[in-house]
């Protein structure tokens, strides 16, 4: 069943190249400005909503880019929910870091600390960071179901923080199945992204090598190779980032639909 969800989500993500291109433009703008991120996640919201009301291997369309104010509000809700769920991890990391480093930093400014103490502090900091990362991961996985549950309840923020219902949904999906689904998606994403980076590297270095052979000039090779890498990188952003977001949102809706309904 999970393979069918991945297959459906993969095919769905490139069903409408025009919508994916627009989504890619929004993703690219997000790297330069903060504001477009609300529309990026607003579109994510709509993909989930279509998936919740669709079926695996169905003929569901990608959302349209319209009603921008509504899209902004939808994106804001998702980012708000994600942020709230990440607070436990942040609360572990920031206070512990400040309490740990400020007094010793002041002391170090006056008198250098022994290397053994610095090593202990760094080791403890790594431990705190690891604990924070684990908490963020756990709550992120929980928040993904919470976001989907919110969308399934017409954008109700109350539904996003109904921990009892969300826990029941995860149990009905199956904790092991959900973990296989999510980490399987991550592995798939890493594979695709790694293949894209490898392709960019091979093309760029091949072009640079050819130019170097023809001109016997490393300068020309760098001048031409640099823009090639830049253009290819932009193409990856315009294609892979919207693909991953569309893939995740579609797949999340489909795995959510596998819950046992009351």
Task: Write up what this structure looks like.
This protein is mainly α and 262 residues long. It has one domain. It has 9 helices and no strands. Helix 1 packs across helix 9, helix 2 packs antiparallel against helix 3 and helix 8 packs antiparallel against helix 9. It is globular, with a radius of gyration of 23 Å.
A few lines on this structure:
The protein is an all-alpha fold and 262 residues long. The chain has one domain. The protein has 9 helices and no strands.
According to DSSP, the number of beta strands is 0
Instruction: Estimate what percentage of residues fall within beta strands.
Output: under 5%
The secondary-structure class comes to: mainly alpha
- Number of helical regions: 9
Task: Tell me the count of domains.
Answer: 1
Instruction: State the helical fraction.
Output: over 70%
User: Distance between the terminal alpha carbons, to the nearest Å?
Assistant: 21 Å
Radius of gyration: 23 Å
Secondary-structure element order, N to C: HHHHHHHHH
Low-confidence stretches: none
Please tell me the overall pLDDT: 79
What best-fitting shape do the alpha-carbon axes yield? globular
